[in-house]
Amino acid sequence: MTEERLMDKIIDVSLRRGFISPTAEIYGGAGGFYDYGPLGTLMRQKIIDLWRQSFVLDEDKVFEITGSLLLPEPVFQASGHLDSFSDPLVQCDKCKSMFRADELIEQITKQKAEGLTLEALDKLIQDNSINCPSCKGELSKARQFNLMFGTEIGSTGGMKGYLRPETAQNIFINFKRLAGFMRNKLPFGIAQVGHSFRNEISPRNFILRVRQFEQMEIEMFYDPEKENEHPRFDEVAEIEINLVTREMQEKGWEEPLRVTVEGAIVEGLIPNQYLAYYLAMETEMLKAMGIPETEFWFRHMQDHEAPHYSAGNFDLEVNLSLGHMEIIGNALRTDYDLQKHAKASNTSFEIADEGRKIVPHVAEPSMGVDRILYTILEKCYREDDRGWVWFQFPAAIAPLEVAVFPLMKKDGLAELAYDIHDELKDAGYLSFYDVSGKIGKRYARADEIGIPFCVTIDYETKEELTVTIRDRDSMQQIRIPIEDLEVVLGELMDGEAEFSEFEDYLIKS
Ligand code: GAP
Q1: How high is the pLDDT of residue 506?
Q2: 266: which of 75, 164, 357, 507 lies 20 to 30 Å off by Cα?
Q3: Phi, psi of 173 (to 5 degrees)
């Protein structure tokens, strides 16, 4: 019997416990679209909150905007997306199925094909005798397929528009006003969270390749002559990251290089402080989300793999059960987009600085919420010898933070437990109240969705004003006074205290 794929197990919990389900499931679904249930939505929000706190709110000169999802055609004519935002497509002459040519070749030959020309892809298909995987029919020649969803705007259909394939373009086309808001002083960053849309040829692997997804992006504008004068670089200079250089890829690599971001700049491995700053910040953020550092690295993409607007990409890739996957793109967009929009719209995007006129350069960290969320699910998934399936989410990312259980419904315990749950909610905890079933079953249900702590209200709560807290990871329990509950939970969640530090309160089994 083949072992069930980890992804299938995660899909199973996701469907059963309200994380994620296919869009229009009752009508057979729609390829590449997923809906997030109550727990999935809470988790997305936590991912966004963590990003927003460290990448936007903690910064002095980064602000967030909210742009339109649908943009008129001239935006994408200028940005190059109309001409270049496409993937190579081949179609089966017999059954008419469509395939992304480079992915099909990679699957069959196990050699990299992303970024190759149409001619090179055709040759590989021919040389390797690749036929339609569904019916073995002949495949057509490869052609470019534009990934944007187009539509007509207005009742007369006079204007063509497209759903944005990245959030970045809203920022570039608003640059003049945004620079004015920032008093025309570089550097500054503009952030945006929101949905992007790509009509992927073959959406697959659950939420990893979908047609609607959410991005958290920042366009950091800086003076290219001061690319190594990032105002806060000192704070991250000593942070170590995992790096895979182009040279390592050419020679074949097994382990990424471990290097501080400052060291990587000195060695000429990362082009400047603006990009390096984000590689360090992303490393810290993913660790806080429960993704071990041994499981991800930054890969300097080869020239032919980088997007049309990029002078160099350092993509964050993770080691997933089904292979390596990019979950964050870090691009050196230079002045590409601003120059294109300035020319097409006849708008000046120059900023004056000490007598010089500068069109700023851009470093862009672009993160996919959906791919990050899946990675967390996979890296926190646990099965143990009790036969339990559970998620070891850090409190910072757990969709629910504490579950409150009355031991029994009777004797006023349910009411008392509900009051405590209500107080925890008032204090800002994501608390969940559960009264049904045996207590062991309730612990199992809470563990399955990764709730880090369970608070149980029993007869001693009534008599001695104490409650128990159960730690999901060690399964140990402590008994503490009710009046200390909020503080103790807060310390445990923020990592200020470890469960083992409450030894004096431990309930010995
Ligand atoms: N503005 C730059 C940009 O969009 P990208 O590398 O194409 O760069 C950034 O996308 C991130 O968006 C990816 O690392 C990934 O997390 C997410 N993403 C892109 N396409 C996706 C898709 N079809 N499904 C899910 N996430 C996707």
Answers
A1: 77
A2: 357
A3: -75, -15
Cα-Cα end-to-end distance for the chain:
39
pLDDT recorded at residue 80: 96
Low-confidence ranges of the chain (pLDDT < 50): 1
Q: Domain 400-505: state its class.
A: alpha beta
Contacts (Cβ under 8 Å, ≥6 apart) of 52: 64, 191, 193, 216
CB of 450 shorter than 6 A to ligand 1: no
Q: What are phi and psi of 17, to 5 degrees?
A: -110, 15
Q: Verify whether ligand 1 is closer than 6 Å to residue 164 (CB atom).
A: no
Domain extents in the chain: 38-70+161-378, 86-146, 400-505
What pLDDT score does 1 carry?
38
Mutate to test the pocket of ligand 1, among 166, 314, 336 (most ligand atoms within 8 A of CB): 166
The predicted model scores a pTM of 0.96
**Do the domains at 38-70+161-378 and 400-505 have one common CATH topology?**
no
Q: What's the topology of domain 86-146? A: Herpes Virus-1 (3.30.40)
List alpha helices for 85-240, DSSP H.
Answer: 101-109, 118-127, 168-173, 175-181, 233-236
Best CA proximity match to 311, nearest among 324, 300, 326: 300
- Judge if the beta carbon of residue 262 lies within 6 A of ligand 1: no
Q: What residue has token string 């640059």?
A: 175
